[in-house]
Each structure stands twice: as structure tokens, then as C-alpha cells.
Specification:
mainly alpha, single chain, 309 residues, globular
Length: 309
């Protein structure tokens, strides 16, 4: 398809879907807050390489942007993003970007993210090579896994488990397995963003031959899955505090309950009004996930400050 006009800087930025970057930034920001909390508990004696931890933020965002672009390329070339698809990703089919441009753009950003990963390996040692390998495979394999009902698992691993475990490791040189539990509250909300997207796109995905979790479950069960992904994190936070002897400040996430209820009502409205009623629910869920994740993060920061005081 021919390019219809010259592209502006805004076009290049829009193509990576920056509104979705909350999903890649919250895990790293939470990890920084948790490191601060651990340092406070140790009385400031815990070794922490803050530069390594901070470098994880641009690396995650670059890998995320690359994954978005590569996924858009395959969605378009395999007929997923057709004219009737309501997902708002129109920059290829409108002619603004050619498929090759989007793929090349994605590969460039993937290499940039990999370069930061290489710097981290050189600074921390190659014992974390397996983390780097998975960090690259997650965006590359996403389209295939999404087409085989495993996209939700890919997102949970790539945007919650790996970045949280990895950020804390490169900062301390020690694996903290409890982070695999602590990341689940915002991790499930990240999965809910994808699930809202796939629930909306059930019909277009089926026509393209994709078997997403939402498509496999059907609209009714998909609505219940979304509700579980939104509500279960509150239960997990309440359980983790006594289970892991944590500060109670992460309960600040309860302030997001009104927004959670609003998103659940929007999802339930699709019973009568169809997929168009949840056309932007993925974006609304991303905004909600950012609110929840930041309050969760702030809770650990306040807990750390209280320990120092």
C-alpha cells in the first residue's frame, strides 16, 4: 500500500501505542519501590545497584514498543486487522505506514532494547542471560502464542514476572522469588488489558483463524474472566500483607475500586450492546492498571520511608 502523506513525529510516536506503556513501566517502577523497601528493612545495608535497576525502564519500554509494532505487522499481513476491526490500529491499512516500515521500525526498537540488555549483562555478569533471552523471545513469539490461546500467558510472563524478577536481580545480584508473587496484582491487570482487547475482537480474530483465550472461552465466559482479572488483585494484596509480613500501605489500591467497578460495568454492557460498547475498554483498563500499579508502588515507598523514620 502506498504512503498517503509524509509522516510526522507524532505519527511515529502514535504507531508504538504509547498509551499502553503503563504496562511496561509499572513493573519496573514497582521493582524500584520494592528495592527501596528492602533497603529500608535492612537499615540501608543491602547492596543495590540503582543504575542497573533504572536502565530496566527504557529497556522494557523499547521492547514493549517493538512488540506492539511486530504484532501490528503480523496482524495486518495475516488479515487480523481488517477494515471492520474495531481496535483503532489503522496506520497500516490507512496507508500511513507500509507493512515493511512497521516491521523495520519494530526490529530497530527491538535491537535498541537488546543493546540496553547487553549493557546490563556486561554490568551484572552473564548468569542472567536466560532472563535476557526470554525478554527478547516474549515480543517475538507473542503473535504465535496469541494465535494459540497463550497470548495472556505471554503477557503475564513478559510484563510482570520477568521484569520484576529481573529488575530486582540486576540491582542486587540475588533472585528474590517473592517478587513472582508480588507482581501478580498488577500483572493480572496487564493481562486484563489484553483480554479486553481480545474479547472485543472475538469475531475478527475468528475470521482470521486466531484462537485467543477470549475466542476459545466465548463472550459470556470471557466477561467472567475479565471480572476475575480485575477483582482478584485486591484479594492478593490483602493476603500478601500478612503472608509476607509486608507494610500495610499497599492497601492504598483500594482507592481504585470505583474505577474497577466502572470498567466491569462496561464489560458487562457488551451483553446487550455488543463489541462496540467495549471498543476502548482496553485503553480504559490500561489507565486503571496504571492507577492501581502506581498506588501499589507508592505503598511500598511509604512503607520504606516509615522504616527509615
Amino acid at each position: 500500500m502506498e504512503i498517503s502523506r509524509d509522516k510526522t513525529l507524532r505519527d511515529w510516536i502514535t504507531a508504538v501505542r504509547p498509551w499502553s506503556f503503563t504496562t511496561s513501566s509499572v513493573p519496573v517502577l514497582f521493582s524500584l519501590a520494592y528495592l527501596f523497601y528492602l533497603c529500608a528493612l535492612s537499615g540501608g545495608t543491602m547492596h543495590t545497584d540503582w543504575w542497573n535497576a533504572v536502565l530496566c525502564l527504557p529497556m522494557m519500554m523499547l521492547l514493549h514498543a517493538a512488540g506492539n509494532l511486530i504484532s501490528d505487522y503480523y496482524d495486518y499481513t495475516r488479515g487480523v486487522d481488517g477494515p471492520d476491526c474495531p481496535n483503532g490500529v489503522t496506520w497500516i491499512r490507512s496507508g500511513l505506514f507500509s507493512p515493511r516500515e512497521v516491521l523495520a521500525y519494530g526490529r530497530i526498537l527491538l535491537c535498541a532494547g537488546a543493546a540496553i540488555g547487553l549493557i546490563l549483562l556486561l554490568r551484572t555478569g552473564f548468569s542472567a542471560l536466560w532472563l535476557a533471552a526470554f525478554a527478547l523471545l516474549v515480543p517475538l513469539l507473542y503473535f504465535y502464542l496469541k494465535a494459540h490461546a497463550l497470548g495472556d500467558l505471554d503477557i503475564l510472563i513478559g510484563f510482570a514476572l520477568l521484569p520484576t524478577l529481573g529488575t530486582v536481580y540486576v540491582a542486587t545480584g540475588i533472585y528474590h522469588p517473592e517478587t513472582l508473587l508480588l507482581c501478580l496484582p498488577f500483572g493480572l491487570h496487564i493481562v486484563a488489558i489484553l483480554h479486553a482487547n481480545n474479547t472485543r475482537d472475538i469475531a475478527s480474530d475468528r475470521r482470521a483463524g486466531l484462537i485467543t483465550l477470549a475466542g476459545k472461552a466465548g463472550p459470556r465466559l470471557s466477561r467472567l474472566i475479565y471480572i476475575a482479572e480485575i477483582t482478584l488483585p485486591y484479594v492478593l494484596v490483602a493476603v500478601f500483607i500478612p503472608l509476607l509480613s509486608l507494610t500495610p500501605w499497599p492497601l492504598l489500591v483500594l482507592l481504585t475500586l470505583p474505577r474497577a467497578v466502572r470498567n466491569i460495568r462496561t464489560m458487562l454492557s457488551s451483553r446487550q450492546r455488543g463489541a462496540k460498547s467495549i471498543a476502548t475498554l482496553d485503553q480504559a483498563t490500561a489507565q486503571y492498571q496504571m492507577m492501581f500499579g502506581m498506588l501499589y508502588t507508592i505503598g511500598f515507598v511509604i512503607g520504606g520511608i516509615m522504616e527509615y523514620v
